[in-house]
Amino acid sequence: MARCQPLPADQRADCVDRMQGRGTTSGSVEEGGIYREKVTREIGVPPGTTPSNQTAPAPLSAEPLPARPPAY
């Protein structure tokens, strides 16, 4: 548990969970180490979609931009 203390708060909570046995554990001291893993799934917007509260960007136009007058 002491190794979890220097971590930022958001990472510390997951570290403590792993040390308390939540998640999966594999390996042993004899094998060179104990591997602890906790998987947290977050629900988000699937790649390639736009959230419903935002508008999609305008499509790019194939027409050239109008010429600008020279700056003096």
Describe it:
- The chain has 72 residues and is of the alpha+beta class.
- Helix content is 15%, strand content 14%.
- The chain is built from one helix and two strands, in the order αββ.
- It has one helix at 9-19; strands spanning 24-28, 33-37.
- A two-stranded antiparallel ribbon has the order 1-2.
- A hairpin with a 4-residue loop joins strand 1 and strand 2 (33-37).
Rounded to an integer in angstroms, the radius of gyration calculated over CA atoms is 25 Å
State which percent range the strand residues make up.
5-15%
Shape: elongated
Low-pLDDT ranges: none
Between the first and last Cα atoms, what is the distance in angstroms?
Answer: 67 Å
Strand order of the largest sheet: 1-2
Give the biggest beta sheet: 2 strands, antiparallel
Helix content: 10-25%
**Element-level helix/strand string:** HEE
Helical/strand content category: alpha+beta
Mean pLDDT: 80
Strand tally is 2
Q: Helix segment count?
A: 1
